[in-house]
Backbone:
């Protein structure tokens, strides 16, 4: 779901495949996010996740994806680790240069 807030920022809510404990990353695919770019053009990305989706490592995340998608992996698998940032231009830190400026995960205990 995507909406615009009162400040004119584009806010989106997606689910995820897994949360990777070791790196603090979120695994999103085009299958669960609704489209290949559902989260790329947001100012604020809200992610709904469950404690049962937490895996220890990237390797474990891909093992679970292979188990879930037995007919072939989704065409796009993205691993998100925090809000986008770059200092490429004049060594000035810019948030949200290649994605959302802010990223929030709502973790629901389902165990």
Residues:
């Amino acid at each position: 779901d995507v909406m615009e807030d009162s400040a004119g920022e584009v806010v989106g809510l997606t689910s995820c495949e897994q949360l990777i404990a070791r790196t603090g990353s979120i695994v999103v695919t085009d299958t669960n996010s609704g489209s290949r770019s559902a989260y790329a053009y947001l100012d604020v990305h809200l992610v709904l996740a469950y404690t049962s989706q937490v895996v220890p490592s990237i390797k474990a995340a891909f093992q679970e994806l292979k188990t879930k998608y037995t007919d072939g992996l989704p065409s796009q698998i993205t691993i998100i680790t925090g809000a986008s940032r770059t200092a490429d231009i004049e060594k000035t830190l810019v948030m949200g240069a290649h994605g959302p400026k802010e990223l929030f995960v709502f973790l629901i205990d389902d165990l």
